[in-house]
Amino acid sequence: MAVVPENLSREQYVYLAKLAEQAKRYEEMVSFMEKLVVGSAAAGSELTVEERNLLSVAYKNVIGSLWAAWRIVLSIEQKEESRVDKDRP
Q1: For the chain, which residues score pLDDT lower than 50?
Q2: Residues 58 and 33 sit within 8 Å (Cβ to Cβ)
Q3: Which residues are in the 14-3-3 domain (predicted)?
Q4: pTM (global) more than 0.70
């Protein structure tokens, strides 16, 4: 994962998040959006609709890939259990 630069403007973080999304680098997208959220919270401002959508997309894609991996593991586990059950007398 790339190092997230400090002290960028909101617009720069949004731009980097969009680039990360296009490159399907969702973990980096989350990092850029986290920096933006921390900066806006410190400044006492709310996120724009676009910023909220980018944050949502970033987490949705990171979590989605984790869920897919988990489903694969569960499927393999179920196949193993059914094979063990068949082998029992």
Answers
A1: none
A2: yes
A3: 16-84
A4: yes
- CA pair distance 12, 57, nearest whole angstrom: 18
Mean of the per-residue pLDDT values of the chain: 92
Q: List, in sequence order, the alpha helices (H) in the chain.
A: 10-22, 26-43, 49-87
Q: Is 29 in contact with 58 (CB distance < 8 Å)? A: yes
Residue 20, token pair as written in the block: 């990360």
Domain ranges of the chain: 10-87
Which own/partner pairs from 33-36 qualify as long-range (CB within 8 Å, at least 24 positions apart)?
33/58, 35/4, 35/6, 35/8, 36/10
Amino acid at site 64: G
Residue 39 half-sphere exposure, CB side, CA atoms within 13 Å? 17
